[in-house]
Design a protein that fits this description.
- The protein is mainly beta.
- It has six helices and 28 strands.
- Strands 1, 2, 3, 4 and 5 form a five-stranded antiparallel β-sheet that branches. Strands 14, 15, 16, 17 and 18 form a five-stranded antiparallel β-sheet that branches.
- It is elongated and about 80 Å long.
């Protein structure tokens, strides 16, 4: 079997094939929680807000990375954290306040404060929307029981925060440098309904750097019923994009890749639909640590006329996107056992020269593929990989040698006589995920 050197797979064993989730809703306890009991250098935050409002109730974002109402963040990258606070002042019918606080001679002060009429803060994000080298504050707003419907940005313009908003419903959103400009942007993703098409929308700053605007949008697959993960990453050496993993009503997964042309045009690559559609929970990942995300495409290995295709192991081809040609380019390969969470790395010739069968007792059996006969067929058995629990390994593992033991399971191999395969070769290609 032709050997390849893919040691980088071991570094990324946990990131290649993951159950990826991008959102969940925290419990709705925001309105009954009291301000935090802070100590040390941050103790003055409560005092500052209380002096300003006469009392307040914290409002917690329900989604996203930041789920606290008091967010500490170095917005101007000077080594000192500022504070972004979300709260509702007592004795007022107004909505939620967003205040940005900073330390002045060891005392917290409110630099800017804004009020939104929405009843719920969906999420808080940070990005440099106007290219000044400082993070701006972005808040998604909504009301109970409906989609978030507005994105507001609190942008630092020459030392003063200004509020600017776009009314736009969304299910998920991310920030990143999607366009050819040197500024960050916001990308929103909305699922389809009986009345509206699913779409992705790009929010950018206007040319005057004074307001955010809806720059462009594009329809995406309306059969997706939920977003499982959305990854911001290099999709080529010079271009960032969003890799959207969606779940269809029948449980299958679909990958869609979105990126921008020029300063505003958002573009969708979906691989023609079926190529990036799969049953297994296998996500896109930067498997070789070159900074560019790879896209998995699953296929079945060769079978003879009398063999059941369902007994064939899954073969994964990892691809990168060529945006000029609008096509996927193969980069690396692996045989995957999703049930037992391991893979055997391969090369571009593997599927032509070998095939792999799954047995009822959890074995992966690697065979030569004989293509020289009149009817191509499975050739001689080369080696087998099998997973044992501790009891099985102690009493029923004759002929097998251990690869690795983890979480009470033993991963082992058995090499057939005269196969030409070595133990070192199997160990080099075997990776847990």
């Amino acid at each position: 079997m032709k050997k390849i050197h893919l040691l980088y797979f071991g570094v990324l064993a946990l990131s290649v094939l993951l159950l990826c989730g991008c959102s969940f809703n925290a419990m709705s306890v925001a309105d009954v929680m009291r301000p935090p009991s802070v100590t040390g250098n941050k103790a003055g935050i409560h005092e500052c807000l209380n002096e300003s409002t006469g009392g307040y109730t914290l409002k917690y974002p329900k989604s996203g990375e930041y789920r606290t109402a008091i967010i500490m963040k170095d917005l101007n990258f000077d080594g000192t954290e500022e504070c972004v606070a979300l709260y509702k002042p007592q004795n007022t019918a107004s909505g939620i306040c967003v205040s940005i606080l900073s330390l002045d001679s060891d005392k917290w002060k409110i630099d800017s404060s804004f009020t939104d009429t929405s009843f719920e803060a969906d999420r808080v994000l940070f990005a440099d929307l106007n290219g000044d080298g400082c993070d701006d504050v972005i808040v998604g707003w909504g009301n109970y029981g409906v989609l978030p419907s507005k994105i507001s940005a609190y942008v630092n313009i020459e030392g003063t925060y200004r509020e600017t908003s776009v009314e736009q419903p969304y299910n998920e959103c991310i920030c990143g440098r999607f366009t050819d400009s040197k500024f960050d942007n916001i990308m929103l993703f909305t699922l389809g309904s009986s009345d509206t098409a699913a779409k992705a929308s790009l929010i950018t700053m206007n040319d005057q750097k004074s307001e955010i605007k809806l720059a462009s949008d594009t329809e995406i697959n309306s059969e997706v019923v939920s977003f499982d993960s959305i990854i911001y990453s290099h999709i080529t050496k010079d271009k960032y994009g969003a890799v959207v993993e969606g779940i269809l009503a029948d449980g299958r997964r679909l990958t869609q890749i979105l990126y921008c042309e020029g300063k505003s045009t958002i573009h969708l690559f979906s691989g023609g639909g079926t190529k990036l559609l799969r049953n297994e929970n296998i996500c896109c990942a930067d498997i070789d640590l070159d900074g560019i995300i790879e896209i998995p495409v699953k296929s079945k290995l060769k079978t003879g006329e009398d063999e059941n295709k369902s007994d064939t192991a899954d073969f994964i081809e990892w691809n990168v996107l060529n945006t000029d040609k609008e096509k996927l380019i193969s980069k690396s390969y692996a045989v995957c056992d999703f049930e037992n969470r391991y893979m055997y790395t391969a090369d571009e010739t593997f599927s032509e020269n070998f095939t792999v069968r799954k047995s009822d007792n959890g074995e992966l059996m690697f065979y030569k593929w004989d293509s020289k006969t009149y009817v191509p067929k499975t050739g001689e058995l080369l080696f087998t990989i099998k997973v044992f629990n501790e009891q099985q390994w102690s009493f029923d593992s004759e002929g097998y040698s251990q690869l690795i033991s983890e979480n009470g399971m033993c991963y082992a191999y058995k090499i057939e006589n005269d196969s030409g395969i070595t133990a070192d070769e199997i160990k080099e290609h075997f990776i847990l995920f």
